[in-house]
Design a protein that fits this description.
This protein is mostly helical. The protein has one domain (3-297). Helices cover 78% and strands 0% of the residues. It contains 13 helices and no strands. The protein has helices at 3-29, 34-55, 61-66, 68-92, 95-102, 105-116, 123-141, 153-179, 184-205, 216-242, 245-251, 254-267, 273-290. Helix 5 runs antiparallel to helix 12. The mean pLDDT is 90.
Length: 300
């Protein structure tokens, strides 16, 4: 198979995995404390990235020492706070709504990059930002009635939006560190492993260590979720190694559609006209965002 075709296949596989991941995690998180779920999963994935970093000889102690503040910030903001907010929100809202709200990430990244990294916002990206903001507003206004698996959709949506914003903050810090020469694997390791340790610390502070006594089913679900996340990262990096990242990102727009369809068919999740309109605008905005050339995002 040619390089372009293989990279495209990997990108589509990544999108399918991402589309399955949110409904699967929605099912797993129902009977688990989000703090327990995220801390265990993050530490496992962080350990995997540490082993990859060591095998690739990218563990540079001097560089890590110089960047420790930024790496710690990534762990606290993206690896701990954002994950906890996201899974807390996912527990309260539907997987379909969470999937589309998560796709507003480019909206917050573009605005923060403009402010802090002095990156340009051209007309196409400005259109994308406007569409995603409008889509988010419409989707949020199209509220649904609470149910057994989505007990407080309004609060859940807000938590998912907050988590997505904090992931955007983390992306800005990570981009700055990688511009300065830090390895992406070290950044990923710091985000997941130390983020997991921070979350574990909250378990200790809030006297919830007893909740680490998991049933066999809960332990299995966490391991499955961890495996799904690892597969996502594995195929995504494989894809962007072979094809342009903008092309690969386009295929990821399939993922919230997959999540929505699985949520409706498997969990009987409700949806309404406002949700569909808002979701469509978010997808359209994301499409414009990923098709903005990197040159237009360069520093002023």
């Amino acid at each position: 198979m040619k390089k372009e075709q293989l990279g495209t296949v990997f990108a589509i596989i990544t999108a399918i995995i991402s589309g399955i991941a949110i409904p699967a995690n929605k099912l797993f998180i129902v009977n688990l404390d989000p703090l327990v779920f995220t801390s265990i999963r993050s530490i496992i994935i962080g350990t995997v990235f540490l082993l990859i970093s060591l095998s690739r000889r990218e563990f540079n102690k001097k560089r890590i020492k110089a960047n420790w503040k930024g790496l710690l910030a990534i762990a606290a903001v993206g690896g701990a706070l954002a994950f906890y907010l996201y899974f807390s929100g996912l527990k309260l809202t539907t997987s379909g709504r969470a999937a589309f709200l998560h796709k507003t990430l480019p909206l917050y990244v573009a605005i923060l990059a403009f402010i802090f990294l002095k990156e340009k916002i051209d007309k196409k990206l400005l259109t994308a930002i406007a569409l995603m903001f409008l889509g988010t507003t419409i989707l949020y206004l199209g509220q649904i009635k609470p149910g057994e698996m989505w007990q407080n959709p309004s609060l859940g949506d807000l938590l998912v939006i907050a988590a997505t914003f904090f992931w955007a903050v983390e992306n800005i810090i990570a981009r700055k560190l990688m511009r300065d020469g830090e390895s992406n694997f070290i950044v990923s390791f710091s985000r997941m492993f130390f983020g997991g340790l921070i979350l574990f610390g909250f378990l200790v502070i809030t006297n919830r260590l007893s909740q680490l006594s998991l049933t066999a089913e809960q332990a299995r679900n966490i391991l499955i979720s961890t495996a799904i996340l690892f597969c996502y990262v594995f195929f995504w990096y494989k894809s962007i190694k072979l094809i342009n990242v903008s092309k690969a990102s386009t295929f990821l727009l399939l993922s919230p559609v997959i999540s929505l369809l699985i949520g409706i068919s498997a969990f009987k999740e409700p949806y309404n006209a406002l949700q569909l309109v808002g979701s469509a605008l978010i997808l359209l905005g994301s499409y414009f965002a990923v098709h903005t050339k990197s040159e237009t995002m360069a520093r002023l």
